Amino acid sequence: MRDTLGVLLAGGAGERLFPLTRDRAKPAVPFAGQYRIIDITLSNCINSDLRHVYILTQYKALSLNRHIREGWGPVVANELGEFIEILPPMQRVSKSWYQGTADAVYQNIYSIGSEEPKYILILSGDHIYKMNYGLMMQQHKASGADVTLATLPIHPDQVSAFGVVEVAKNGEVTGFEEKPKETKTRSPWTPDMVDVSMGIYIFNTDILLPELIKDAEDPDSKHDFGHDILPKLLGRFKMMAYNFVDENKQRALYWRDVGTLEAYYEANMDVAGVTPIFNLYDKSWPMRTRSYQYPPAKFVFGEIGRTGMAINSIVASGSIVSGSVVRNSVLSHDVRVNSYADVDSSIIFSHVNIGRHCRIRHAIIDRDVHIPDGTVIGYDQQEDRKNYFVSPSGLTVVTRDYSVYENPVSPEFLQQNENTW
User: Fold this and answer.
1) Residue 197 marked in a binding site
2) Which of residues 210, 245, 260 is at a domain's end?
3) 37 lies in the same domain as 97
4) Does residue 301 share a domain with residue 172?
5) Do 241 and 154 fall within a single domain?
6) How confident is the model at residue 308, as a pLDDT?
7) Which of 18, 38, 68, 160 is 20 to 30 Å from 28 by CA-CA measure?
8) For residue range 312-346, what is the model confidence (pLDDT) as tens digits?
């Protein structure tokens, strides 16, 4: 991987994760108590021995930038030329913000070219999975490919959310269709499934950079890899599919797009379960993050009706469960759950104080929130809507200002802005 540059796209606005992305970038949203979403992809990079990584940020990136600088800068050896470096929009070749995934890479073409990589690995910072990119690179080189796409088999009913890849039996890509309503394409390896793009691409640098320049000059382009770059390369260059090899070591492949509140919630509930599908405790594939100097988590009081305990839950350092019960939940750093409170099936971000006699279930509590004594959340959606954000599925999200939210993200808005950075 020494001649490979990783370009990690982390500038998405994350509208579907509102209100968690109201004040932070989507890749900076906490995950599994002590991580951020972007930590998963960065851990894959380090575990794959990829140590030259540019991170392209854009929207509300302060906390993300700080997390990368303080948590990931020390991981690589700068004296050996290694780096994990943030590239904010610099408007070096354009006066606009990133117009799509391809445009984001194009606007940083000077920085990419200055590294003189032989290969460019395009990654996304908002998915949960384990993957050895080195194995993908081995296939790319061995096959003599100009472009390699990582693919994942899914059920045909789900294709409208993905780029569908038509693959020959020898692994060569013969067709590509971005987010069709339906498809007759089937995987040559699993005939009842459809191969779709994971948004992970390896390009030979001498192929990609000229194509990015052409795309930037095309006024009709959406400047997106799936919509524009890949279809234009198809048939002109050798494009291969790489069948996803899951380092999670479970019977079913694990790859999750946590771009919606419901998907994000379910992924967190999984890691808190007794036998999670996504294994955070695999020493052969460690998950890294920024280190915080908090004391160990503590559970106090053992009286009848006032016992501090957490069941089937993750509790991060600095947290105190004081005479209260936490079930099936994820508690981030520095959370205080006071006596006689009951927290069930919820995600609690850092620096939250939950008062006495509170009852909270099926909720996400954002950081720095103080929940007054006796507050009830998640038991009456009509009452919750008076003070908090409630998703269509009934998930209650509590933010710092306790404002009543009207969700600004309509289906029409999402359709019009699906590729906006």
Assistant:
1) yes
2) 260
3) yes
4) no
5) yes
6) 97
7) 160
8) 999 999 999 999 999 999 999 999 999 999 999 99
CATH of the domain at 367: 2.160.10.10
3-state secondary structure the chain: CCCEEEEEEECCCCHHHCCCCCCCCHHHCEECCCEEHHHHHHHHHHHCCCCEEEEEECCCCHHHHHHHHHHCHHHCCHHHCCEEEEECCCCCCCCCCCCCHHHHHHCCHHHHHHHCCCEEEEEECCEEECECHHHHHHHHHHHCCCEEEEEEEECHHHHHHCEEEEECCCCEEEEEEECCCCCCCCCCCCCCCEEEEEEEEEEEHHHHHHHHHHHHCCCCCCCCHHHHHHHHHECCECEEEEECCECCCCCCCCEEECCCHHHHHHHHHHHHCCCCCCCCCCCCCCCCCCCCCCCCCEEECEECCEECEEECCEECCCCEEECCEEECCEECCCCEECCCCEEECCEECCCCEECCCCEEECEEECCCCEECCCCEECCCHHHHHCCCEECCCCCEEECCCCCCCCCCCCHHHHHHCCCCC
Mean pLDDT across 108-137? 95
Say whether pTM exceeds 0.70.
yes
pLDDT value at residue 421: 38
211-238 pLDDT tens trace = 999 999 999 999 999 889 999 999 999 9
pLDDT at 420 (0 to 100): 38
